[in-house]
Amino acid sequence: MTGEAQTVASRVNEQEMLRPQSVATRRAVFVGAARYRRASYGSNHPLAIPRVSLTLDLINSYGAMAPEEYRQGRPASHRELLGFHTKDYIQAFERAQFRGGVEDSDRRCYQLGTLENPYFPGFFDTASLATGSGVLAAEAVLEGVTAFSPAGGMHHAAPGQARGFCYFNDPVLAIQRLRRAGLRVLYWDMDAHHGDGVEAAFAEDPDTLTVSLHMDTDYAYPYQGGRLTDWPGLAVNLPLPKEVNDSEYALAFAVLWPRLLQHFDPDVVVLQAGTDILAPDPLSKLRVSNGLFWQVVRQIVAESPRLLVLGGGGYHPVALARCWTGLWAILTGRSLPAELPATGQTLLKAVEWELDDADAPGYGQQFLALQDTPRPGPVRAELRERLDFLLHHHPLFANRSSAA
Fold first, then answer.
1. Average pLDDT, stretch 191-211?
2. Which residue among the candidates 45, 78, 85, 156 is catalytic per the annotation?
3. Taking the CB of the first residue and of the last residue of the chain, which one, N or C, has fewer CB atoms within 10 A?
Protein backbone atom coordinates (compact mmCIF):
# COMPACT_ATOMS: atom_id res chain seq x y z
CA MET A 1 0.00 0.00 0.00
CA THR A 2 1.29 3.48 -0.79
CA GLY A 3 2.10 5.88 2.03
CA GLU A 4 -0.61 8.18 0.73
CA ALA A 5 -3.20 5.40 0.88
CA GLN A 6 -2.12 4.41 4.38
CA THR A 7 -2.53 7.98 5.58
CA VAL A 8 -6.08 8.36 4.29
CA ALA A 9 -7.16 4.90 5.40
CA SER A 10 -5.85 5.55 8.92
CA ARG A 11 -7.88 8.76 9.16
CA VAL A 12 -11.20 6.97 8.87
CA ASN A 13 -11.56 6.79 12.66
CA GLU A 14 -10.40 10.32 13.41
CA GLN A 15 -12.59 13.00 14.94
CA GLU A 16 -12.27 15.22 11.85
CA MET A 17 -14.75 12.92 10.09
CA LEU A 18 -17.51 13.68 12.57
CA ARG A 19 -18.78 16.91 11.01
CA PRO A 20 -19.10 17.98 7.40
CA GLN A 21 -16.64 20.88 7.76
CA SER A 22 -15.58 22.44 4.51
CA VAL A 23 -12.72 24.13 2.77
CA ALA A 24 -15.12 25.65 0.23
CA THR A 25 -13.85 28.93 -1.23
CA ARG A 26 -16.42 29.46 -4.01
CA ARG A 27 -20.02 30.51 -3.61
CA ALA A 28 -22.45 27.61 -4.08
CA VAL A 29 -26.01 27.40 -5.37
CA PHE A 30 -28.72 24.76 -4.91
CA VAL A 31 -30.88 24.16 -7.99
CA GLY A 32 -34.39 23.02 -7.09
CA ALA A 33 -38.06 23.30 -7.97
CA ALA A 34 -41.43 23.01 -6.24
CA ARG A 35 -42.37 20.23 -8.67
CA TYR A 36 -40.18 17.79 -6.75
CA ARG A 37 -42.75 17.88 -3.95
CA ARG A 38 -45.21 16.08 -6.22
CA ALA A 39 -45.56 12.32 -6.16
CA SER A 40 -43.54 10.64 -8.90
CA TYR A 41 -42.69 7.14 -10.11
CA GLY A 42 -46.18 5.94 -9.19
CA SER A 43 -46.36 3.57 -6.23
CA ASN A 44 -44.24 0.63 -5.14
CA HIS A 45 -41.10 2.00 -6.78
CA PRO A 46 -37.75 2.70 -5.09
CA LEU A 47 -37.89 6.34 -6.20
CA ALA A 48 -41.45 6.96 -5.01
CA ILE A 49 -39.97 8.67 -1.93
CA PRO A 50 -39.21 12.28 -0.97
CA ARG A 51 -35.64 13.16 -1.87
CA VAL A 52 -34.98 16.71 -3.10
CA SER A 53 -37.83 18.22 -1.08
CA LEU A 54 -36.81 16.35 2.09
CA THR A 55 -33.19 17.44 1.68
CA LEU A 56 -34.19 21.07 1.18
CA ASP A 57 -36.48 20.98 4.20
CA LEU A 58 -33.75 19.46 6.38
CA ILE A 59 -31.26 22.09 5.21
CA ASN A 60 -33.79 24.79 6.04
CA SER A 61 -34.39 23.29 9.48
CA TYR A 62 -30.77 24.20 10.16
CA GLY A 63 -31.26 27.65 8.62
CA ALA A 64 -28.45 26.68 6.28
CA MET A 65 -29.58 28.24 3.00
CA ALA A 66 -29.70 31.93 2.15
CA PRO A 67 -32.20 33.12 -0.49
CA GLU A 68 -29.41 33.94 -2.95
CA GLU A 69 -28.12 30.36 -2.70
CA TYR A 70 -31.29 28.89 -4.20
CA ARG A 71 -31.92 28.85 -7.95
CA GLN A 72 -35.10 27.79 -9.65
CA GLY A 73 -34.57 24.97 -12.11
CA ARG A 74 -35.88 24.98 -15.67
CA PRO A 75 -36.94 22.35 -18.24
CA ALA A 76 -34.48 21.23 -20.87
CA SER A 77 -35.11 22.59 -24.35
CA HIS A 78 -35.70 20.20 -27.23
CA ARG A 79 -32.43 21.35 -28.72
CA GLU A 80 -30.61 20.37 -25.53
CA LEU A 81 -32.35 16.99 -25.34
CA LEU A 82 -31.49 16.28 -28.99
CA GLY A 83 -27.83 16.75 -28.12
CA PHE A 84 -27.95 13.19 -26.77
CA HIS A 85 -31.41 11.65 -27.11
CA THR A 86 -33.08 10.59 -30.33
CA LYS A 87 -36.01 12.49 -31.81
CA ASP A 88 -38.18 9.37 -31.87
CA TYR A 89 -37.59 8.71 -28.18
CA ILE A 90 -38.40 12.29 -27.16
CA GLN A 91 -41.59 12.24 -29.23
CA ALA A 92 -42.70 8.91 -27.76
CA PHE A 93 -42.05 10.26 -24.27
CA GLU A 94 -44.12 13.41 -24.90
CA ARG A 95 -46.84 11.39 -26.61
CA ALA A 96 -47.19 9.13 -23.57
CA GLN A 97 -47.61 12.09 -21.24
CA PHE A 98 -50.21 13.67 -23.53
CA ARG A 99 -52.20 10.42 -23.83
CA GLY A 100 -51.96 9.54 -20.17
CA GLY A 101 -50.19 6.22 -20.76
CA VAL A 102 -47.62 4.37 -22.85
CA GLU A 103 -48.59 2.32 -25.91
CA ASP A 104 -47.34 -1.27 -25.98
CA SER A 105 -45.14 -0.66 -29.02
CA ASP A 106 -43.48 2.33 -27.35
CA ARG A 107 -43.06 0.40 -24.13
CA ARG A 108 -41.20 -2.36 -25.92
CA CYS A 109 -39.09 -0.01 -28.02
CA TYR A 110 -38.25 2.73 -25.53
CA GLN A 111 -38.62 0.99 -22.15
CA LEU A 112 -41.12 3.63 -21.04
CA GLY A 113 -44.04 2.60 -18.85
CA THR A 114 -42.28 -0.47 -17.45
CA LEU A 115 -42.00 -1.45 -13.79
CA GLU A 116 -38.44 -0.09 -13.88
CA ASN A 117 -39.29 3.16 -15.67
CA PRO A 118 -42.99 3.67 -14.90
CA TYR A 119 -45.48 6.07 -16.34
CA PHE A 120 -46.82 8.67 -13.91
CA PRO A 121 -48.71 11.90 -14.61
CA GLY A 122 -46.32 14.58 -15.85
CA PHE A 123 -43.39 12.17 -16.16
CA PHE A 124 -41.93 13.93 -19.22
CA ASP A 125 -42.16 17.33 -17.54
CA THR A 126 -40.50 16.04 -14.35
CA ALA A 127 -37.64 14.41 -16.23
CA SER A 128 -37.18 17.44 -18.47
CA LEU A 129 -37.05 19.73 -15.44
CA ALA A 130 -34.39 17.63 -13.71
CA THR A 131 -32.38 17.55 -16.94
CA GLY A 132 -32.64 21.25 -17.71
CA SER A 133 -31.74 22.00 -14.11
CA GLY A 134 -28.50 20.09 -14.60
CA VAL A 135 -27.68 22.23 -17.63
CA LEU A 136 -28.58 25.36 -15.66
CA ALA A 137 -26.24 24.17 -12.90
CA ALA A 138 -23.47 23.70 -15.45
CA GLU A 139 -24.04 27.27 -16.62
CA ALA A 140 -23.75 28.43 -12.99
CA VAL A 141 -20.38 26.69 -12.81
CA LEU A 142 -19.33 28.63 -15.92
CA GLU A 143 -20.21 31.80 -13.95
CA GLY A 144 -17.65 30.80 -11.32
CA VAL A 145 -19.81 29.21 -8.61
CA THR A 146 -20.20 25.63 -7.41
CA ALA A 147 -23.63 24.22 -8.24
CA PHE A 148 -25.63 21.34 -6.75
CA SER A 149 -28.56 19.90 -8.74
CA PRO A 150 -29.85 17.07 -6.52
CA ALA A 151 -32.64 15.97 -8.87
CA GLY A 152 -29.99 15.02 -11.45
CA GLY A 153 -27.43 12.28 -11.73
CA MET A 154 -29.61 10.04 -13.91
CA HIS A 155 -26.61 8.29 -15.40
CA HIS A 156 -28.16 5.16 -16.98
CA ALA A 157 -30.43 6.69 -19.65
CA ALA A 158 -29.50 5.78 -23.23
CA PRO A 159 -30.05 7.95 -26.33
CA GLY A 160 -33.23 6.08 -27.28
CA GLN A 161 -34.32 4.30 -24.11
CA ALA A 162 -35.13 4.85 -20.46
CA ARG A 163 -32.95 2.63 -18.29
CA GLY A 164 -32.45 2.02 -14.61
CA PHE A 165 -35.05 4.56 -13.37
CA CYS A 166 -33.45 7.18 -15.65
CA TYR A 167 -35.46 8.83 -18.45
CA PHE A 168 -33.04 11.54 -19.64
CA ASN A 169 -29.31 11.53 -19.04
CA ASP A 170 -28.77 14.89 -17.37
CA PRO A 171 -25.06 14.28 -16.59
CA VAL A 172 -24.41 13.90 -20.32
CA LEU A 173 -26.25 17.12 -21.20
CA ALA A 174 -24.55 19.03 -18.38
CA ILE A 175 -21.13 17.81 -19.50
CA GLN A 176 -21.96 18.74 -23.09
CA ARG A 177 -22.65 22.29 -21.90
CA LEU A 178 -19.27 22.43 -20.17
CA ARG A 179 -17.55 20.97 -23.21
CA ARG A 180 -19.13 23.61 -25.50
CA ALA A 181 -17.41 26.16 -23.30
CA GLY A 182 -14.11 24.42 -24.05
CA LEU A 183 -13.61 22.83 -20.62
CA ARG A 184 -11.88 19.52 -20.03
CA VAL A 185 -14.16 17.42 -17.82
CA LEU A 186 -13.48 14.77 -15.18
CA TYR A 187 -16.72 12.94 -14.34
CA TRP A 188 -16.53 11.18 -10.98
CA ASP A 189 -19.41 8.81 -10.19
CA MET A 190 -19.94 7.81 -6.53
CA ASP A 191 -23.25 6.04 -7.14
CA ALA A 192 -23.41 2.38 -6.13
CA HIS A 193 -24.27 1.51 -9.75
CA HIS A 194 -22.00 1.81 -12.76
CA GLY A 195 -22.38 5.08 -14.67
CA ASP A 196 -22.78 3.26 -17.96
CA GLY A 197 -24.78 5.85 -19.91
CA VAL A 198 -22.29 8.66 -19.27
CA GLU A 199 -19.33 6.41 -20.00
CA ALA A 200 -20.77 5.38 -23.36
CA ALA A 201 -21.63 8.96 -24.32
CA PHE A 202 -18.05 10.20 -24.01
CA ALA A 203 -16.05 7.15 -25.05
CA GLU A 204 -14.85 9.03 -28.15
CA ASP A 205 -14.13 12.35 -26.42
CA PRO A 206 -10.49 12.62 -25.26
CA ASP A 207 -11.34 15.70 -23.18
CA THR A 208 -13.90 13.93 -20.99
CA LEU A 209 -12.78 11.21 -18.59
CA THR A 210 -15.39 9.13 -16.77
CA VAL A 211 -14.58 7.41 -13.47
CA SER A 212 -16.98 5.07 -11.68
CA LEU A 213 -16.62 3.30 -8.32
CA HIS A 214 -19.56 0.92 -8.04
CA MET A 215 -20.94 -2.45 -7.06
CA ASP A 216 -19.58 -5.24 -9.23
CA THR A 217 -21.82 -5.59 -12.29
CA ASP A 218 -21.55 -9.37 -11.99
CA TYR A 219 -24.17 -9.09 -9.25
CA ALA A 220 -25.65 -5.58 -9.61
CA TYR A 221 -27.38 -3.39 -12.19
CA PRO A 222 -26.67 -2.78 -15.08
CA TYR A 223 -25.23 -6.34 -15.12
CA GLN A 224 -22.81 -5.52 -17.92
CA GLY A 225 -19.79 -3.27 -18.45
CA GLY A 226 -18.05 -1.47 -15.63
CA ARG A 227 -15.54 -4.25 -15.10
CA LEU A 228 -11.96 -3.68 -14.07
CA THR A 229 -10.77 -4.34 -17.61
CA ASP A 230 -13.39 -2.10 -19.26
CA TRP A 231 -11.92 1.25 -20.20
CA PRO A 232 -13.68 2.64 -23.28
CA GLY A 233 -12.25 6.07 -23.99
CA LEU A 234 -9.81 5.49 -21.09
CA ALA A 235 -12.75 5.28 -18.65
CA VAL A 236 -11.69 4.12 -15.20
CA ASN A 237 -13.91 1.52 -13.54
CA LEU A 238 -13.44 0.09 -10.07
CA PRO A 239 -15.99 -2.61 -9.22
CA LEU A 240 -16.09 -2.81 -5.43
CA PRO A 241 -16.41 -6.02 -3.40
CA LYS A 242 -19.62 -6.54 -1.45
CA GLU A 243 -19.82 -4.98 2.01
CA VAL A 244 -17.13 -2.36 1.32
CA ASN A 245 -16.47 -0.42 4.55
CA ASP A 246 -15.20 3.10 5.25
CA SER A 247 -11.55 2.06 5.39
CA GLU A 248 -11.73 0.29 2.04
CA TYR A 249 -13.58 3.11 0.28
CA ALA A 250 -11.14 5.65 1.73
CA LEU A 251 -8.23 3.64 0.35
CA ALA A 252 -9.78 3.34 -3.13
CA PHE A 253 -10.37 7.08 -3.25
CA ALA A 254 -6.92 7.91 -1.93
CA VAL A 255 -5.25 5.77 -4.58
CA LEU A 256 -7.32 6.91 -7.57
CA TRP A 257 -8.35 10.55 -7.03
CA PRO A 258 -4.97 12.32 -6.80
CA ARG A 259 -3.48 10.32 -9.66
CA LEU A 260 -6.42 10.97 -11.97
CA LEU A 261 -6.47 14.64 -11.07
CA GLN A 262 -2.78 14.88 -11.91
CA HIS A 263 -2.74 12.71 -15.03
CA PHE A 264 -5.90 14.05 -16.64
CA ASP A 265 -5.62 17.67 -15.43
CA PRO A 266 -9.31 18.68 -15.81
CA ASP A 267 -10.71 22.18 -15.98
CA VAL A 268 -13.86 21.10 -14.13
CA VAL A 269 -15.05 18.11 -12.09
CA VAL A 270 -18.60 16.79 -12.36
CA LEU A 271 -19.43 14.77 -9.25
CA GLN A 272 -22.36 12.34 -9.32
CA ALA A 273 -23.15 12.10 -5.61
CA GLY A 274 -25.50 9.12 -5.39
CA THR A 275 -26.10 8.10 -1.77
CA ASP A 276 -26.88 4.46 -2.45
CA ILE A 277 -23.36 3.56 -1.32
CA LEU A 278 -24.53 4.21 2.25
CA ALA A 279 -25.03 1.24 4.56
CA PRO A 280 -28.79 1.73 5.18
CA ASP A 281 -29.69 1.94 1.49
CA PRO A 282 -32.01 -0.93 0.50
CA LEU A 283 -30.62 -1.27 -3.04
CA SER A 284 -26.94 -1.20 -2.10
CA LYS A 285 -24.60 -3.98 -1.08
CA LEU A 286 -21.98 -1.50 0.15
CA ARG A 287 -21.57 -0.40 3.77
CA VAL A 288 -20.20 3.13 3.73
CA SER A 289 -21.08 5.83 6.29
CA ASN A 290 -22.05 9.38 5.44
CA GLY A 291 -19.01 10.60 7.38
CA LEU A 292 -16.75 8.85 4.89
CA PHE A 293 -18.92 10.18 2.05
CA TRP A 294 -18.29 13.71 3.35
CA GLN A 295 -14.57 13.03 3.74
CA VAL A 296 -14.39 12.20 0.05
CA VAL A 297 -16.47 15.24 -0.90
CA ARG A 298 -14.29 17.56 1.19
CA GLN A 299 -11.22 16.58 -0.78
CA ILE A 300 -13.01 16.85 -4.10
CA VAL A 301 -14.24 20.33 -3.19
CA ALA A 302 -10.78 21.40 -2.05
CA GLU A 303 -8.93 20.18 -5.12
CA SER A 304 -11.35 20.63 -8.03
CA PRO A 305 -10.62 23.64 -10.26
CA ARG A 306 -14.41 24.02 -10.74
CA LEU A 307 -17.15 21.77 -9.50
CA LEU A 308 -20.64 20.68 -10.55
CA VAL A 309 -22.46 18.28 -8.20
CA LEU A 310 -25.41 16.19 -9.36
CA GLY A 311 -27.65 13.88 -7.36
CA GLY A 312 -28.05 10.24 -8.30
CA GLY A 313 -29.23 7.05 -6.68
CA GLY A 314 -30.41 6.91 -3.10
CA TYR A 315 -33.41 4.91 -1.95
CA HIS A 316 -33.43 5.50 1.79
CA PRO A 317 -34.99 8.96 2.13
CA VAL A 318 -33.73 9.68 5.65
CA ALA A 319 -30.17 8.57 4.93
CA LEU A 320 -30.19 10.53 1.67
CA ALA A 321 -31.49 13.77 3.19
CA ARG A 322 -28.96 13.66 6.03
CA CYS A 323 -26.12 12.91 3.63
CA TRP A 324 -27.00 15.62 1.11
CA THR A 325 -27.54 18.13 3.91
CA GLY A 326 -23.98 17.48 5.03
CA LEU A 327 -22.81 17.72 1.43
CA TRP A 328 -24.48 21.12 1.10
CA ALA A 329 -22.72 22.26 4.27
CA ILE A 330 -19.38 21.30 2.72
CA LEU A 331 -20.15 23.09 -0.55
CA THR A 332 -21.07 26.28 1.29
CA GLY A 333 -18.41 26.23 4.01
CA ARG A 334 -20.87 25.74 6.87
CA SER A 335 -20.34 23.69 10.02
CA LEU A 336 -23.62 22.20 11.21
CA PRO A 337 -24.39 21.00 14.75
CA ALA A 338 -24.14 17.25 15.10
CA GLU A 339 -27.57 17.03 16.68
CA LEU A 340 -30.44 17.49 14.26
CA PRO A 341 -32.68 20.47 15.01
CA ALA A 342 -36.00 19.59 16.65
CA THR A 343 -37.85 20.56 13.48
CA GLY A 344 -35.52 18.36 11.47
CA GLN A 345 -36.10 15.41 13.77
CA THR A 346 -39.86 15.82 13.43
CA LEU A 347 -39.51 16.12 9.66
CA LEU A 348 -37.57 12.86 9.31
CA LYS A 349 -39.78 10.92 11.70
CA ALA A 350 -42.81 11.89 9.62
CA VAL A 351 -41.46 10.23 6.45
CA GLU A 352 -43.51 7.20 5.48
CA TRP A 353 -42.13 4.64 3.06
CA GLU A 354 -42.58 0.93 2.51
CA LEU A 355 -39.03 -0.16 3.33
CA ASP A 356 -38.80 1.61 6.68
CA ASP A 357 -37.22 -0.92 9.06
CA ALA A 358 -37.59 -0.08 12.75
CA ASP A 359 -35.49 -3.15 13.67
CA ALA A 360 -32.43 -1.98 11.69
CA PRO A 361 -29.30 -1.18 13.75
CA GLY A 362 -29.09 2.51 14.60
CA TYR A 363 -32.69 3.11 13.51
CA GLY A 364 -33.46 5.68 16.19
CA GLN A 365 -30.13 7.48 15.88
CA GLN A 366 -30.88 8.54 12.30
CA PHE A 367 -33.60 10.86 13.62
CA LEU A 368 -31.32 12.49 16.18
CA ALA A 369 -27.89 12.99 14.58
CA LEU A 370 -26.69 14.22 11.22
CA GLN A 371 -23.86 11.75 10.99
CA ASP A 372 -23.89 7.96 10.87
CA THR A 373 -21.78 5.84 13.14
CA PRO A 374 -18.42 5.38 11.33
CA ARG A 375 -17.93 1.99 9.70
CA PRO A 376 -14.17 1.28 9.60
CA GLY A 377 -12.88 -2.20 9.01
CA PRO A 378 -10.14 -4.33 7.48
CA VAL A 379 -8.96 -3.63 3.95
CA ARG A 380 -9.35 -6.89 2.07
CA ALA A 381 -6.73 -8.23 -0.28
CA GLU A 382 -9.38 -8.41 -3.00
CA LEU A 383 -9.67 -4.62 -3.10
CA ARG A 384 -5.91 -4.07 -2.96
CA GLU A 385 -5.49 -6.45 -5.88
CA ARG A 386 -8.04 -4.55 -7.98
CA LEU A 387 -6.33 -1.23 -7.29
CA ASP A 388 -2.96 -2.79 -8.04
CA PHE A 389 -4.30 -4.09 -11.35
CA LEU A 390 -5.52 -0.64 -12.37
CA LEU A 391 -2.25 1.04 -11.46
CA HIS A 392 -0.21 -1.47 -13.45
CA HIS A 393 -2.46 -2.03 -16.47
CA HIS A 394 -4.76 0.92 -17.12
CA PRO A 395 -3.22 3.20 -19.79
CA LEU A 396 -3.60 6.28 -17.59
CA PHE A 397 -1.54 4.73 -14.80
CA ALA A 398 0.76 2.13 -16.32
CA ASN A 399 4.44 2.94 -15.76
CA ARG A 400 3.51 6.08 -13.81
CA SER A 401 2.52 4.81 -10.37
CA SER A 402 3.61 2.29 -7.83
CA ALA A 403 1.34 -0.46 -6.60
CA ALA A 404 -1.30 0.16 -3.96
1. 98
2. 156
3. N
